[in-house]
UniProtKB/TrEMBL annotation:
The lineage of its organism: Eukaryota, Viridiplantae, Streptophyta, Embryophyta, Tracheophyta. Gene3D superfamilies: NAD(P)-binding Rossmann-like Domain. Residues 14-253 form the NAD-dependent epimerase/dehydratase domain. CDD domains: FR_SDR_e. Keywords: Oxidoreductase. It comes from the Eukaryota. This is NAD-dependent epimerase/dehydratase. It comes from Macleaya cordata. InterPro entries: Epimerase_deHydtase (IPR001509), NAD(P)-bd_dom_sf (IPR036291), NAD(P)_dehydrat-like (IPR050425). GO terms for molecular function: oxidoreductase activity, acting on the CH-OH group of donors, NAD or NADP as acceptor. The keyword Oxidoreductase applies.
Length: 329
């Protein structure tokens, strides 16, 4: 049982894993603005300089960022980062849409074992709540879902379907989330999961992440339909705000879809084409996600908590500007 002095010390101290990635960097920025002290974990040896340069003295909220080098597969180093924290945002997970050579080693193990290690350390240090960044890839593809109802948080990705098609990223995210719920239930840990769709927005980190690469490639003429990885898109700033909202709302529980609508990738491509007529965006003529039921307010659970989504046109424009500024376009 934590003493009241321990509780006081932990207040507004949180850990973010994968803190130097696309979503992690935005989450750190959002937390600093709200005055949190952030234990930011990064993969050992990877570049985290932007966490301090883009958040000088913690931003206007006066928060503080402390960087911890920690492979999520290394229980000891993860524990060091989580000790003394009131909350944990588990964001780190290999995020690539490319086909891995060894799916088990490159994707599934870090996703599942990494999540287990983070939860174990969180339980050991009496963390109040863990916010798990899952994905729409733990909801879809699910071919047995009704073709008259929009996807919602009750859907789970069909693992056999994905394995037979060598779609290992959804497998890794689904197994990690299932393991997390099992662990939370067994040990009475307070866990909330968020399921972002394809995240867009300005890149705070120096490298190109997988979801912004989807837009980059579309602008460069790619004909990839994103058949297995698409439900809609969302501004990364909204995702970070939603993650903090879920941490700060005592009544939040379960799974939260975080997308500004559900619609086909072909519709997204059309919007991109209109906004960026100078780029050779492919015109899809057939459904890219056959049978997908569209829905404007698909993230009803987050909308009910008061989250306001940025128009997707703004997310596209912000991403394009950022891709250009960083030399990716
Ligand atoms: N972007 C999206 O559209 C989207 C949508 C839904 C869900 N998500 C989820 O959101 C999370 C972040 O994604 P992102 O878009 O921000 O991707 P990202 O930029 O690639 O970030 C992933 C982060 O995880 C870290 N990481 C991977 N393996 C690690 C390990 N073994 N130990 C420590 N750190 C490790 C990476 O570090 P290094 O790069 O230094 O290796 C990176 O900082 C992931 O869980 C992803 O599944 C993303």
């Amino acid at each position: 049982m934590a003493t009241s002095e321990e509780k006081k010390k932990k207040e507004k101290v949180v850990c973010v894993t994968g803190a130097n990635g696309f979503i992690g960097s935005w989450l750190v920025r959002t937390l600093l603005h709200k005055g949190y002290t952030v234990h930011a974990t990064i993969f050992p040896g990877s570049d985290a300089s932007h966490l301090t340069t883009t958040n000088p003295s913690g931003g206007c909220g006066g928060g503080l960022v402390v960087v911890f080098q920690a492979d999520i597969l290394d229980q000891e180093s993860i524990s060091r980062a989580i000790e003394g924290c009131e909350g944990v945002f588990h964001v780190a997970s290999p995020c690539t849409l490319e086909d891995p050579k060894d799916p088990q080693l490159e994707l599934v193990l870090p996703a599942v074992q990494g999540t287990f290690n983070v939860l174990e350390a969180s339980r050991n240090f009496n963390v109040r709540r863990v916010v798990l960044t899952s994905s729409i890839s733990a909801l879809v593809p699910n071919p047995s879902w009704s073709n008259t109802i929009p996807f919602d948080e009750t859907s789970w990705t069909d693992l056999d379907y994905c394995k037979s098609r060598q779609k290992w990223y959804p497998v890794s995210k689904t197994l990690a989330e299932k393991a997390a719920w099992e662990y939370a239930e067994k040990h009475g840990l307070d866990l909330v999961a968020i399921h972002p769709s394809t995240c867009l927005g300005p890149l705070l980190q120096p490298s190109l992440n997988a979801s912004c690469a989807v837009l980059q490639q579309l602008l460069q003429g790619s004909e990839d339909t994103q058949e297995y990885h698409w439900l809609g898109a969302v501004h990364v700033r909204d995702v970070a705000n939603a993650q903090v909202l879920l941490f700060e709302t005592p009544s939040a529980s379960g799974r939260y879809l975080c997308t500004n609508g559900i619609y086909q990738f072909m519709d997204f491509a059309q919007v991109v084409s209109k906004l960026c007529p100078e780029f050779p965006v492919h015109r899809f003529v057939e459904d890219t996600q056959p049978g997908l039921v569209g829905c404007k307010n698909a993230a009803k659970r987050l909308l009910d908590l008061g989250l306001v989504f940025t128009p997707i046109e703004d997310a596209i424009q912000d991403t394009v500007e950022s891709l250009k500024a960083k030399g990716f376009l």
